[in-house]
Amino acid sequence: MKKIVMKFGGTSVGTGENIRHVAELVTKYAKDDCRVAVVVSALAGVTNSLIEVACRAKKSDEKHIEAFVKELRQKHDDAISTAIVSKEIQKEVTQIIEKTVSELEKVLTGICYVGDLTPKSKDYVVSFGERLSAPIVWGAIRDHKFETQYFTGKEAGIVTDSNFGEANPLMNFTSHLIHERLSPLLEKGVILVVTGFIAANQDGIVTTVGRGGSDYTATILGVALKADEVWIWTDVDGIMTTDPKIVPTAQMLPQLSYQEAAEMAIFGAKAMHPRALGPVIKENIPVRIRSVFHPENQGTLITKEPIAEPKEAVKAVAMIKDVAMLNVSGAGMVGAPGSYAKVFDVLGKNNINVMMISTAVSEANISFIIKRGMLGRAISNIEIALLDRGGIVSEVTTEDDVAVIAVMGANMKGTLGVASKIFSTVANAGINIRMIAQGSSELNISFVVKEKDGAAVVKAIHQEFHLSKA
Ligand code: ADP
Ligand code: ASP
Ligand code: MG
User: Fold this and answer.
1) Deepest in the core among 16, 41, 358, 420, taking most CB within 10 A?
2) Among 104, 138, 442, which residue's Cα sits nearest to residue 263?
3) Is the CB of residue 166 below 6 angstroms from any atom belonging to ligand 1?
């Protein structure tokens, strides 16, 4: 009997109707002789709204909390009444939601009075999105008369470090706990429902594994439960040649290697969390990205090696927004061994992830890309540690209105002229490039443009390399 971990993203559980559909899909596979573990995201838009309300609570906006909580309760109550038919189950789930929402209200009021929002308390607030969606999905599955049980990430046994906001699972311990707690139930045919995105550190304090992290939860569970496949159900047919919201004629890619998919995910194809492939690569568990709206399609299968290698050098182009560029310069860096290390050490110690780096042989400056939200933290810490005072850095400049464009394909390796074709396409569109990087893997060429030009660049490259449907 096959074991499948199925993850449903925010759009798949956006409304009560969608949740009903999810329950139908899950129970259909359970009937067809699959053991199913379900991972659910928060209802569409809820995580963003929780972040917003937490930030407003910090500024002591108590009125907003009241209105927010009312709306949140209503949204979930509406979902319950459409997703679940049995009045008895409806009542039970409503009580769970009510209790959870009241707890959230208290937490937000606390933040409001203290006027302080730490990464730790922010994780606690955002964890409520998944804590509210999972019981509804659980209720909808029970409605189909299947045996099912739901767990938070913490209850399931996902243990992470204490890097709040981007926590990393302690994979060995996690696998052990999940296997111990969930495997026996799965073997008995119980449909498991686990909250995505949220976990806990070794002290039991709630953590989150980064935005879009339900994908990550799914692959962690896949490994721990020794699943045959992990399915990421979403609102598009699979991984496409580019975001179909930018180019509607983008094509679905039926097959990708882990490495190719990782290159796409890292550069914000958004179809998947960047670190989600880590656990499954080691265990060689296939991942399938597929559409809840067209479940008859097989979607994109991600495995160790792609079966049929297409000849095209370029397979896909992605745009990652919400990033910022920092340029650090100083004559003191020239010919000074260890000066780059000092810069990255400051960033690393402050938990700032560097997504892309570029430097010239002159060594007088280094440019790098980080998440936009980290910009303030990066500037202040570089300033404290390295700026002037006889230090190596004399100037730090920033641009926060940029986007990274990543052009990806395994056959770019060794194919001449791909870079020149990409850059002349951008030049012909009259768009200026701010920074360039090509990894020596040659699977990916990435460059930075102003965010307002991003969509136009994606369209032009997609067209130049004939990536649209015929
Ligand atoms: P979910 O809520 O299911 O996690 P996401 O919004 O995180 O869904 O990811 C799916 C979205 O990713 C799609 O709606 C699509 O607009 C976007 N996307 C961006 N690039 C790509 C790509 N190359 N292939 C498929 N989807 C992409
Ligand atoms: N709800 C979380 C987010 O919006 C996790 C996820 O959807 O994967 O980032
Ligand atoms: Mg997602």
Assistant:
1) 41
2) 442
3) no
Lookup result for tokens 């989600």? 276
42 Cβ below 6 A of ligand 2:
yes
Amino acid occupying residue 102: S
**From the CA of 309, how far away is ligand 3's center (Å)?**
27
Calculated CA dihedral for residues 427, 430, 431, 435, nearest 10 degrees: 30
444 CA from centroid of ligand 2 (Å): 26
C-alpha 252/C-alpha 300 separation (Å) is 7
Strands 316-329 and 395-408: antiparallel
Give 196's DSSP letter.
Answer: S
Residue 268's pLDDT band, with cuts at 50, 70 and 90, is low
Question: 53, 14, 29: which is closest to 295 by C-alpha?
Answer: 29
- Planar angle of CA 21, 23, 29, nearest 5 degrees: 105
- Nearest-angstrom CA–CA distance, 289 and 272: 9
The model carries a pTM of 0.92
Ligand 1, from 235, 314, 459: best to mutate by most atoms within 8 Å of Cβ? 235
Atom of ligand 2 nearest to the CA of 273: 8
Give the whole-angstrom CA distance, residue 347 versus residue 385: 10
- CA atoms lying within 13 Å on the CB side of residue 309: 9
Is 196 close to ligand 2, i.e. is its CB under 6 Å away?
yes
Q: Which pLDDT tens digit goes with each residue over 88-139?
A: 999 999 999 999 999 999 999 999 999 989 999 999 999 999 999 999 999 9
Amino acid in the structure at residue 203: D
From atom 2 of ligand 2, which residue's Cα is the shortest distance away? Answer: 212
